[in-house]
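Section handout 9: paired folding examples.
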Amino acid sequence: MTGAIVTFAQILQAVAEEAGVTVDAIKGRAQSGGPARSNWPRQRAVTIGRRLRPELSLRRLGQFLGGRATDVVWSAVVAGERRLAADPAEAVAVSRVLARLGVESLPERRPHAARVRRLNIEIHAAEARLTALRAQLERLEG
């Protein structure tokens, strides 16, 4: 699957298989298996998801995870990144998930990707507004 776009559904499936839980358990609200059984796979999924699919917003990831709020998803991203950096066992687990996905390695973290995306949208809107103002000025002067 190298070179192909990996969907978040595929990421969820690979994480679930690696963790020995169902996708529904990762998406679900209940923590019947204890925090480690439900939160860690969810954190792993959003960490991998944010790296492999940086264009997916926190809101969209929350929709994939059973309608979770963006602040909850962000907390999972932060916790997952911290755990990945600090825990060699987590790095091994993530590597196994990537192997299931046919992905060689996890891209470097892009902490400002969302901000850059928002600024590009603002620039585009400002350019469109400037074009409209120039056209309006030409009509007034013409």
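Moving on to protein 2 of 2.
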Amino acid sequence: MSRDGGLGLIGMCAGVAGVFAGLVWIGYPPAVDDSVYSYPFTATGFTIAQVVLTIRDLGLAVLLIALGTSGAVGRSWLGRIGIAGSVLAMVGLAAMEIVSLAAKDSTDTVGAGYGLASIAAGLFLILTGIAVLRAKTWTGWRRYLPLALGIYVFAPLTPGIVAGFGPGQVVIAGWMLLFAILGWTLAESPSGRATLPDAPTRAAR
């Protein structure tokens, strides 16, 4: 497996972990009142959850680095800005997971920080997605994945999060699923092109 494929595998695992986390969050029996920031966890459970999410976000940053070095975005300034910005946004989200630990067992929120990092991720992923489409290195449905990840931030991710805890976890899990698919794409074929068997040689006459 190539370097980009290996990094893609890390990103795929991070995305799968994100889907799993969302499902666990939804089904977890609430241990505190929903007015407490750590809901549905106690302070200890919330700390563990935030560490998991930090690792997830850093894994997604690694995935985006792999996307940038795979050649899928081409060599345009648009692609370079898109990748750099989306990676920094993911690192920002990881940082917010740690910062939010200061808000456990209280009703204070760090929603503004999450919101800014998420919007930045969406905008830069859209730029990345446009660069991928323009580069025409990837073929088929794969070439639309980065753009879909960016658009998803604005609909349905943001409205779902605003709607409440349950819907928010569902849409986050959906976003993570798209990241997992992108990671699988890079792990399976970093170039984004389906691997085809060699064409049979024509028999000599």
